[in-house]
TrEMBL record:
One Pfam family this sequence matches: Meth_synt_2
Taxonomic path: Bacteria, Bacillati, Actinomycetota, Actinomycetes, Micrococcales
Single Gene Ontology BP annotation: methionine biosynthetic process
Annotated ranges, domain Cobalamin-independent methionine synthase MetE C-terminal/archaeal: 10-174, 177-382
Species assigned in the record: Kocuria turfanensis
Sequence intervals crossing the membrane: none
This protein's name: Methionine synthase
Composition skew (Polar residues), residue ranges: 1-14
CDD domains per record: CIMS_C_terminal_like
InterPro entries per UniProt: Met_Synth_C/arc, UROD/MetE-like_sf
Length: 405
């Protein structure tokens, strides 16, 4: 298995794709115990085959299951990539806390980083009037979801669920002729962002998350698929620390999470791992995002064959230049976003091609796989999401003509 291009620019996406009304209804019924897990699994299998077929028809090379096994609370859902793990881990106790709405405020001290709830983010403080205006379009339409707390030793209990994810994707790939597929899984650092009432230290907590989630990574890669490690926490957590820490303190906080991730990935071939970094999927100003130049070297220590990151958003599109000063290790690829989840405007294929060529000029044409900034499902209307994937593949064809002849 190789992630590198040979005769053209390959295409993929970050993972989440729009759920159908039928699947959303099945998720709702299962959550209310109106249908069994087996009935939900039947619905998932049919849905995954349809979404893989549509990816192939759109021209996507490296496909996935649309994250259909990661239940969305509604058609608008910014947190399914994280919330899905709550049903796959033991040691958790449900709460009525919604961290996106919580008013809890916690403060960091020099050398000690503490994460806050969403309303206490510095971006939200700076633009509080806009965030609290229901007509602004920020967080509009999301359903309230609660997060549990850790009250006992973390264990992985999602064997049946991840087996379903793997089985459905492999069957859909066989039915559609897709050769390469990936399944997204939560990182230890993101897993550790729930309230902890059991582990004595941050290090114990993060490594417990790593040991638990490793079972999911192994289940995916043992099936011959690529595991995508979803880890917005590497970049996004910066905005959750108040007061603003030094970059050095934040990187020390983050380095522990990277070391724990590498511990969880031990023995897994790098070509079967891709790492996803982003600054959060909500449609806010993002003026307090930490710049990629501060994170890239640490990201490159992660034992992965490819790195996906935002390369098209209005806040980060200029950062392709970072790769001029931070060489990509040999044999690895970058998987930059060349269309964005954060705008309803569908990027022109020529712009997509230009972005691909910018990256290729720096790291080499063989080392750029064209992708999305983040998941499109739950963040954009389905019609717009699929139009963006069509523009992505059309732009990749243009770039391929210019780069490969």
């Amino acid at each position: 298995m190789t992630l590198q291009n040979t005769d053209r620019v390959q295409t993929t996406h970050v993972g989440s794709l729009p759920r159908t009304p039928r699947l959303l209804e099945a998720n709702r019924q299962h959550a209310q115990s109106a249908i069994t897990f087996e009935q939900l699994t039947d619905e998932l299998a049919a849905g995954v085959e349809d979404v893989v077929r549509r990816q192939r028809e759109t021209g996507v090379d490296v496909v996935n299951d649309g994250e259909y096994g990661h239940t969305m609370s509604s058609a608008v859902d910014y947190g399914a990539w994280w919330n899905y793990s709550f049903s796959r881990l033991g040691g958790l106790t449900p709460t009525d806390e919604d961290r996106w709405a919580s008013t809890e405020r916690r403060r960091s001290s020099p050398g000690h980083v503490v994460l806050t709830s969403f309303p206490d983010r510095r971006d939200r403080e700076r633009f509080r009037e806009a965030y609290e205006d229901p007509t602004s379009g920020i967080l509009t339409g999301r359903s309230s979801t609660t997060q549990p707390k850790i009250t006992g030793p973390l264990t992985y209990t999602g064997q049946e669920a991840v087996a379903s994810d793997v089985r459905n994707l492999k069957a859909a790939m066989a039915a559609t002729g897709a050769e390469t597929g990936f399944v997204a899984a939560l990182s230890p650092g993101s897993c550790a962002r729930v309230t902890n009432e059991y582990y004595r230290t941050d290090e114990e907590l993060v490594y417990a998350c790593a040991d638990a989630m490793r079972e999911e990574y192994l289940a995916i890669t043992a099936a011959g698929l690529i595991v995508q490690i979803d880890d917005p926490s590497i970049a996004e957590s910066w905005d959750q620390v108040n007061p603003e820490p030094t970059v050095e303190d934040y990187l020390a906080f983050t380095r522990l999470r990277v070391e724990a991730l590498n511990h969880a990935l031990r023995g897994i071939p790098e070509e079967q791992v891709r790492f996803h970094l982003c600054w959060g999927s909500w449609h806010g100003p993002h003026t307090t995002d930490l710049e990629l130049k501060h994170l890239v070297d640490l990201m490159l220590t992660i034992n992965a064959g490819g790195y996906t990151f935002e390369g098209a958003s209005a806040r980060h599109a200029h950062e392709w230049k970072v790769w001029k000063e931070h060489p990509l290790p040999e044999g690895r690829v970058i998987i930059p976003g060349v269309v964005s989840h954060s705008t309803n405007v569908v990027e022109h294929p020529e712009l997509v091609a230009d972005r691909i060529e910018q990256f290729a000029a720096v790291v080499g044409r063989e080392n750029v796989v064209a992708s999305t900034d983040c998941g499109l499902g739950g963040r954009l209307h389905p019609q717009i999401a699929w139009a963006k994937l069509e523009s992505l593949t059309a732009g990749a064809r243009l770039a391929s003509e210019r780069l490969f002849g």
